[in-house]
Amino acid sequence: MEKRSLKDYFLLMIKGIAMGSADVVPGVSGGTIAFIVGVYQELLNSIKSVNLASLKLFFAFRWREFWKAINGNFLLALIIGICASIFSLARLITYLLEAHPVLVWAFFFGLVLASTWIVVRDVKRWNWKTALSFIIGAVSAFYITMATPAKTPDAGWFVFISGVIAICAMILPGISGSFILVLMGKYFYIMDAVKSFKLSVLLIFTAGVIVGITTFSRFLSFALRRFHDVTIAVLSGFMLGSLNKVWPWKETVTTYTDHHGVVKPLVETNILPDKLLWEAVALTIIGFLLVYMLNRLSRKARK
After folding, report:
1. Whole-number Å distance between alpha carbons of 257 and 269
2. Residue range 161-177, pLDDT digits in tens
3. Do 297 and 283 contact (CB within 8 A), yes or no?
4. Theoretical Cys-Cys bridge with 169: which of 87, 158, 180, 239, CB 3.0 to 4.6 Å?
């Protein structure tokens, strides 16, 4: 477990807040933020360390050793930031997406565009394998963003499965767990549970998240270790393809009525800019520069 000062843990909490903010938005991945702020690999390794060996330490009441084995201080700082962000920003983000969609999506378009550029630079050697992997990632993400949201049950078993699948997407740079929830018809249901603190739904969803993240992180960590360039190429392709989802100008195709009787867009299609062009361009540039500066500061801090 890496030695860190109180300042380091405070910065980790800030990074967790940024990850949580991204996870709330359909189209932006918390995994992307983890990648650009330089905690992605450590996050995967820490999650992966929650295994049979470390759990034996826990159940043997050797909690200090367990905490050290799972890099507990690191995980706790990130989790506090993520949870604080999700519970505090859920209401604000959903309001802004409804009240100022073009401006919000423009800002996130800049974030994802810069993130794609930063991640793709991590490919050390380009060849036909990495190029093909990049294309496959981009096409796959584009296809996912074109999929139509489904009508699904609110039963506990489906909420659990939604948690498993969404968290796998959330730790992938470029694939938004929130958008996967939209496709599964559970985004607004989970967001309502967060805003109203509906414990029965949140506990089931959290159980799915824990199962999903502890299993999928092992596969992703193995892929990054054994096939680094190919994996990074796929991930950066995912991010490029996901830009389709965060395009600011949209037209509503179909709507749905939520639990409060409010009509909301269900399926949207991208259109050419028809309003707020310069404001959107300015926010896209701000989003791009924010990620660029955040990445530079993280790289400087790691040196």
Report:
1. 19
2. 988 888 877 777 666 67
3. no
4. 180
